[in-house]
Amino acid sequence: MYRRWIVFLWAAAIGWGMAVPTSAGSPGDADPDRPGRDQVNTTRLVGREGEPGEDVAMEKATVSPETEPDGELVDYKLVEPFEASPGETACGSCAGDCFGGCQNTCCSNQGDWFVDGWIAQGFTGNPDNPRNNFNGPLTFNDRANEYQLNQIYVSFGRQVDKSVYRWGIGGQVDFLYGTDFFFTTALGLETHVDGSPRWNGEHGPRAGGATLYGLAMPQLYAEAFAPVGGGVTVKVGHFYSLLGYESVMAAENFHYSHSYARQYGLPFTHTGALAGYRVSPYLQIHGGITRGWDNWEDNNSELAFLGQVRWCSADGQNSLRFALHSGNEDDLGLNTRTTYSLIASRRISCRLSYAVEHVGGTEDNGAIRNDAQIEADWFGVTNYLTYQVSCRTRLGVRFEWFRDDENARVLAIPLDGVTGGDYHALTLGASHRLQSMPCLEVRPELRYDWSDAAFPVLNVFGMYNNFTSDEQYTFAISAIARF
Fold first, then answer.
1. Angstrom distance (rounded) from CA 244 to CA 254
2. Rg of the Cα trace of the chain?
3. Which positions ≥6 away from 81 have C-beta within 8 Å?
4. 430/440 Cα distance (integer angstroms)
5. To which H or E segment does residue 18 belong?
6. How far apart are CA 310 and CA 259, in angstroms?
7. Which of 192, 283, 302, 367 could form a disulfide with 279 if both were Cys (CB 3.0 to 4.6 A apart)?
8. Model pTM score
9. Which domains does the chain have, with CATH numbers?
10. Residues of the chain with pLDDT under 50
């Protein structure tokens, strides 16, 4: 366990170093993979003297509409100094970048009521051509040498305008059809409590006989905003987890594939209630209760805690986010599982952005060693670096190390005889929006994975090429068309 805390302290030191103020620059999204509806550290005054939409500094976090000396009513709208929360369909832009503002005109959710969506699809090539047609422990783009319609994603609802200091009520529902449905299913919703499919087919090639294509509803919640203090939000229902840097929603990610931390180390969704409070324009906290990991119905009548602290610098160039979830996940409700994510982001320049994510988790009695139950631990660090070549083109690299100490998460055989537990992945990618089709994003990717995990007793000599190799090369091309 000491290694996990060494990694935690190392990641925290990096985050603290990134928090050192830098010279003022153009505000932008702190996380290059997660654009937000509102630009970071930007207060937009509408109807005031000066250029329309002029960005100026403001001392107070909330203001009310006031009347100018000439009697004209002016709506002073405060833009939140945070990127969108996970699961909030976001209309982001890179306004304020090196190129004079690269507006994303493909979003439809500009009013109170919105409808947004996309079609995400891709192909992943695997030179090993594994017999089972799976890319080892890779999820989402898990099929080898096969086209995948990953997501037909539709989100609609009424967004709560948190930029105006007044009461507001809204909500959102998301539907996902495609091969990605399998990784976002919730117990008791898409599946019965025993894990069998509720409305999706059976007798497929995936675990438990799940089919390749299916329908999921990853979000269904109501939300309210109360003008109390700096502003209070309350969300009740089924929603994406606060943990993690990468998102289920394809349009929010830079890379086509996902990190091991996202795939195996963190929950995807929760069902419960979550409250948020803005302490200041640069500090926000969340806290609530859930029914556990990826649950619609509770399997043990035990509630879990979900919390988060988010901070961004005054110049919008740095951000820190720490989130934690803890509760009893086993059917008897006896074993506590706790996991957290610490994410530090820095906009190094108007072209270059960097983020580092550290995740860690532990589960009581999650493994067996010498015929005795012991604690299972997992932890890792993922680095993200993106470079904006132009308004339409970005380049990115991701490097990850993930440690599954007792092999309870990835191989999912936490028994004696399993060796290793380290997973590494290096991913090179690009993102390009066509000039003639600005709502179409093309993402090529090269990836190299290697791991020392093995279980010779069951003829598992590696995690790749149908459990015969300790390394894997893949190349992929994907496209996202927004509508």
1. 14
2. 22
3. 40, 41, 42, 281, 282, 312, 316
4. 14
5. helix 2-18
6. 22
7. 283
8. 0.81
9. 2-42+79-482 (2.40.160.10)
10. 15-16, 18-97, 100-101
